[in-house]
Amino acid sequence: MTTTLQIFGIHGIGEVRAGEDLLSVIERGLRASAVQLQPGDILVVTHKIVSKAEARSIDLRTVEPSPLAQQWGARWGKDPRQVEVVLREAARIVRMDRGLIIAQTHHGFVCANAGVDASNVGADETVLLLPIDPDASARRLYEALRAALGFAVPVIISDSWGRPWRDGVTNVAIGVAGMQPLADYRGRRDPYGYLLNASVMAVADELAAAAELVMGKLDQRPVAVVRGYAYQPGAGTAQQLVMPPERDLFR
Amino acid sequence: MTTTLQIFGIHGIGEVRAGEDLLSVIERGLRASAVQLQPGDILVVTHKIVSKAEARSIDLRTVEPSPLAQQWGARWGKDPRQVEVVLREAARIVRMDRGLIIAQTHHGFVCANAGVDASNVGADETVLLLPIDPDASARRLYEALRAALGFAVPVIISDSWGRPWRDGVTNVAIGVAGMQPLADYRGRRDPYGYLLNASVMAVADELAAAAELVMGKLDQRPVAVVRGYAYQPGAGTAQQLVMPPERDLFR
Q1: Tens of pLDDT along A63-121?
Q2: B187/A contact by beta carbon, under 8 A
Q3: Which of A58, B25, B129, B229 sits at 20 to 30 Å (Cα–Cα) from B8?
Q4: The pTM is what?
Q5: Can you name the CATH fold of A6-56+130-246?
Q6: Domain limits of chain B?
């Protein structure tokens, strides 16, 4: 049987303000895009609108850079106030070299600039942080959606991250609710009888990446609906996508 | 306008033998799946069937493990002949610890086991290597498809790789033809007027990841067709996805 996946980019969401109800924001987009959620759908939401709704922005004019932030900023031509925010969001610095800061966040994620998004710094001089607990944010939206719809739709909150050894960034899942983020095929056999040894697929990351293809980087479509993927329901979280330290060769 | 992506999983390909013509293999699957390629489509092909068609397998019974392979195998409970094949495929060892070998291949890719796929080792004791030049493999299939169809369909050859700091594997692009693998948004403005500073999306990797969602790890569908993605045509390669050494903080 042919397996077909459909991915809808949701437009018409417009600016999201601090304190706005995320369910209303999503419903506005779904109406504008004439997409009705169905059982089996998965909702992918860029963290930017979650962080905005949760007022996770910092006005750089209120930030006093530390000596380290000042030195690093001067050396590499970075705004020392932005560097200061990155250092504050970091639980551990993994690499700090050639103007790049790769840090582990308090969530356990390892990413550039500890997830601080300065790409939208404009006249208002604000930077955007990751949600305090993206899994909790996903779960709140998942519960609100279930109450509104009468059925469950898993939620993935995404961000765009770079990778070691690979150029360019891809979307990954930083918050998950209502599904298992990993699909474990270990011990199963392929159609030719071969045993699959090392096949745990990070399907939540692949769903986030797939969603990015319809979102458009210019943020016209900060939400996507994936239809037709046979996900594994369950109380999964994006924390399951964090490599345990004992298996991490790149600390 | 709502943007919609469709991804079709192509089944009915069956076993691929060494020396088989890849275009015929793909056409067999498209017919069985009742999917007709259209202008605008992108074809994603798992490297396994490419490597099989190109006879890139090694019979372990012909492999004489070196002392290093024997020691490593004994220490970590690995088949020393498999370890030997990994060491031969490696141009540079990036990490060799806790039973894991992360190596740079002669293509420049950094991945576990230098891309040697032992997951399908069965009674016949063979392991599968990456294609010698996956960009060239993609280009040959792209040219053959164009000749057969009368229009161009970009080709992505994919493999499943682990990532530092993230659990699970995701599909990435190891061969590309007919499209740009990176979408560069730097210097453009989002709908709110904000300048995007650091947004080069690795869209070929995202397309590979999206395709995996319909492929199914058990290899029933080693090919996928992505319809509705506005790719950038051009002579792109997967080499463009390799991080240049001078920007690589994780050598």
Answers
A1: 999 999 999 999 999 999 999 999 999 999 999 999 999 999 999 999 999 999 877 65
A2: no
A3: B129
A4: 0.95
A5: 60s Ribosomal Protein L30; Chain: A; (3.30.1330)
A6: 6-56+130-245, 57-128
